[in-house]
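Appendix B. Chain record.
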Amino acid sequence: MSDAATGPAIVQDPSPNELRDPFVRQELKRATVWLGLAGAIALAVILVQPLLIIFAGLVFAALLDGGVRLLGKVLPIGRGWRLLIVVLLTIAFLAGTFYLTGVQVSAQVSQLRSTLESQANRVTSWLSTQGLMPGASDVSGIARQALSSVGRITSWVGTAFGALTTMFMIVVIGLFVAMDPRTYLRGLEWMVPRRNRAEFSVVVEWMGKTLRRLLAGRLLGMVAEGILTGVALSIGGVPMAMILGILTGLLAFIPNIGAFISGALMIAVGFSAGTHVGFWAIGTYVIVQGFDGYVLLPIVAKKTVDLPPALTLGAQIMASALFGILGLALADPMTAMVKTALERSAEREGEQDSGKGVE
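Structure tokens predicted for this chain:
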């Protein structure tokens, strides 16, 4: 009788479609995490070119920071003044180099282009006569088809104006970061949970040190390869020895692939002047690369980053396929920083395991 008077019992528990339900809230959190991760990946894919430019700016900042730290050991003045001296010295070196060698280099660049074109035509003709390559008309048709297919996906960085704009942005980002790196490091630390900030700071410090050492070793190798190549080619009478030495030094920033490209250039130019000059260019390439790979780099590697050649080459192939020429140039620093982070993670796990063993 009382049940009929009071009516049916009302369910007080939350329904499955209410956010008060713990199960719904837990599943909503999981879905939010997965959706956020998918959105972050999509955003990274869309913004991959700007992200590479920012990373290149950080690499340039690390290069400037290394010069500032090195100058601070002999000149105890403010960081801003040391950075100004490093920038002015860099500008003076580049301006002086282009001023002293500008006329000769500009003439050699046009001569190098015509020489490479004639050598490429000779090789193509020989391969065509051997039946190993399509004829000239077929090659032209294939080239036009390939260029038309990739024309739409060529980004603005590939244009001359885009390249200059990219270089300008990289330099500006590097200068701003090198002026006060601690400010940007604090900003990154604020985006990390408080309990992980100490470890994050250690990892960033390790990455910065690794990057500075890597770039110092690369600069030393670039200077050595450029000078040795230019002098050796001049002694052997190889045409355009100066421009070939400069190109070899610049391409040395990209290990393995850069050496292959510079070697192909100097050999092609050498054979254009005669068989004996071509063999001299081959000998120069083998000796310089052997000295750099088996004498100079091992000495530098004792105080810099030890990256296995196969790992570096694999990273360059993947970075060039994914990100183009800028990714190829930055593959080495990216690999070194990932390697440093993994090494720090392994060391931290080892410290934790040893601490548990002591307990």
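Further analysis of this model is presented in Appendix C.
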